[in-house]
């Protein structure tokens, strides 16, 4: 069977607009999986048909079939954007992933390693020797090497640094010196700068001599001889004004600037608020040291959202879906075991009211409603608080007002929901007292859920911990335990 026969679906052609077709990666993945599947089937067929022949002939036929499919796979991969190849690698089991990875051209390794998830990157790096890793890193800029540095062996980083120029080495060390969630860890050193005492014609001639402009270049930064930032020249001003006009006459002197130690989340909010494409990064002496672009901001926001989603599920890190079983267990087990302990404690609390439940069997059916509604109320509040913390909207001066507002909202909802729950409990049990207990327990547990939904993420944030990590587990523990305690306790006091 010819892997490139006429009825074979054509692989996506991204040669003109790589990575722009939103369906290209999926079509390419389907094509890669089809070729890998057909290769396996055909090699099994060849093995059966030529089983009795000499080993040399058998190996030759298998080698030809293998080579034919590898060429077809390589042709598909050559047309793809690095991000699309990364998508394919993440969707393949490890043996197939490494087969595809070996077919990627060496000069593209670095770009693809930047695009894949952290978990998949580890498996790819583990399959590469030192020379391959050094060659991949040498294709990248200093800020990109800094992104890969945590995953690269120390001997690789030493060789990479030796191959850099003095300026690039300084940039690499500077990028690696900043904390992960700061602007310095995200900034790009590749930018265009000019002086203010030249004409626009000179600027145009200078730009034409460049091979290409840095990505997301929407403005040219104006600096003096000591690299102090004086302003920026937009491309609109560059193109619409007369070439004889001086840069100093049309540049913008007032710029939005950021510093390398600024919080990356604050910078991301500024990009959204002011619709920025790029922003200069300056040091304490107003020297231009880099720039932040919207692409880096989008990547940061995406990573933060993924981390938050994982932490809410009790996962410590992003997980390769084809990771070894032990790695997956190590990632998933801790919070699940904690959840088991908290659930067991809630069950223990309920068991202390065995006599009450035996006398009023209906309590066993109703207490799960109280616990569940309290948990849902707490999750609503917690989600809003975590979002507000991420946006920097919660400050000491407005914390009291926020707490009062949330408690007032919860009390109103609790009264309405409790009234409905009380009527329902009365209707199915015929006991007005049980309905009143149900109403009171519902209101109290909603208040408990909302209070903890506020306090848990705020306290974790105050101590410098991720407010999303484990918050849902702690909230569920509290609302289940206290929900059972409140409902069964009130029933014991007033009904038994």
Mean pLDDT score, rounded?
A: 84
**Biggest beta sheet attributes:** 3 strands, mixed
Number of strands: 5
Tally of separate helices: 22
Q: What is the CATH architecture annotation of the largest domain?
A: Orthogonal Bundle
For this structure, what is the CATH homologous superfamily of the largest domain? SLC41 divalent cation transporters, integral membrane domain
The poorly predicted ranges are 1-20
List the helices and strands in order: HHHHHHHHHHHEHEEHHHEEHHHHHHH
Region (Disordered): 1-25
Transmembrane segments: 359-386, 407-428, 434-456, 468-495
Organism: Parvibium lacunae
Family: Belongs to the SLC41A transporter family.
Can you walk through the features of this model?
With 496 residues, this protein is mainly alpha-helical. Helix content is 66%, strand content 5%. The protein has 22 helices and 5 strands. The protein is globular, with a radius of gyration of 31 Å.
Provide a short characterization of the protein structure.
The chain is mainly alpha-helical. 66% of the residues lie in helices and 5% in strands.
């Amino acid at each position: 069977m010819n892997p490139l026969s006429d009825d074979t679906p054509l692989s996506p052609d991204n040669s003109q607009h790589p990575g722009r077709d939103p369906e290209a990666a999926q079509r390419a993945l389907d094509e890669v999986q089809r070729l890998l599947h057909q290769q396996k089937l055909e090699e099994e067929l060849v093995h059966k048909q030529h089983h009795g022949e000499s080993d040399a002939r058998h190996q030759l036929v298998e080698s030809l079939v293998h080579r034919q499919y590898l060429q077809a796979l390589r042709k598909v991969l050559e047309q793809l954007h690095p991000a699309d190849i990364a998508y394919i690698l993440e969707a393949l089991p490890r043996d197939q992933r490494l087969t595809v990875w070996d077919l990627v051209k060496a000069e593209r390794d670095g770009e693809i390693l930047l695009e894949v998830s952290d978990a998949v990157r580890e498996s790819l790096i583990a399959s590469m020797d030192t020379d391959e890793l050094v060659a991949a890193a040498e294709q990248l800029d200093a800020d990109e090497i800094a992104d890969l540095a945590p995953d690269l062996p120390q001997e690789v980083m030493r060789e990479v640094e030796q191959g850099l120029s003095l300026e690039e080495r300084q940039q690499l060390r500077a990028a690696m010196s900043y904390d992960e969630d700061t602007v310095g860890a995200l900034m790009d050193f590749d930018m265009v700068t000019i002086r203010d005492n030249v004409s626009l014609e000179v600027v145009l001639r200078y730009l034409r001599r460049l091979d290409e402009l840095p990505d997301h270049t929407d403005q040219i930064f104006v600096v003096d001889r000591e690299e102090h930032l004086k302003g920026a020249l937009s491309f609109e001003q560059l193109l619409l004004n007369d070439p004889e006009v001086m840069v100093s006459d049309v540049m913008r002197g007032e710029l939005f600037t950021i510093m390398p130690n600024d919080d990356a989340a604050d910078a991301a909010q500024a990009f959204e608020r002011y619709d920025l494409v790029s922003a200069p990064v300056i040091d304490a002496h107003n020297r231009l040291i880099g720039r932040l672009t919207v692409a880096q901001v989008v990547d940061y926001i995406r990573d933060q959202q993924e981390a938050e989603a994982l932490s809410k599920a009790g996962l410590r890190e992003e997980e390769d879906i084809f990771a070894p079983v032990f790695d997956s267990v190590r990632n998933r087990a801790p919070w699940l075991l904690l959840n088991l302990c908290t659930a067991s404690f809630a069950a223990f609390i309920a068991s202390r009211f065995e006599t009450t439940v035996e006398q009023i069997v209906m309590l066993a059916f109703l207490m799960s409603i109280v616990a569940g509604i309290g948990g849902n109320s707490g999750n609503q509040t917690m989600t809003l608080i975590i979002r507000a913390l991420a946006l920097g909207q919660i400050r000491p001066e407005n914390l009291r007002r926020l707490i009062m507002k949330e408690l007032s909202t919860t009390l109103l909802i609790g009264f309405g929901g409790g009234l409905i729950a009380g009527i329902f409990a009365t209707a199915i049990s015929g006991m007005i007292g049980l309905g009143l207990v149900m109403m009171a327990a519902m209101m109290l547990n909603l208040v408990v859920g909302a209070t903890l939904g506020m306090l848990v993420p705020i306290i974790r944030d105050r101590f410098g911990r991720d407010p999303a990590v484990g918050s849902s587990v702690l909230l569920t523990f509290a609302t289940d335990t206290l929900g059972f305690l409140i409902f069964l306790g009130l029933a014991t006091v007033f009904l038994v």
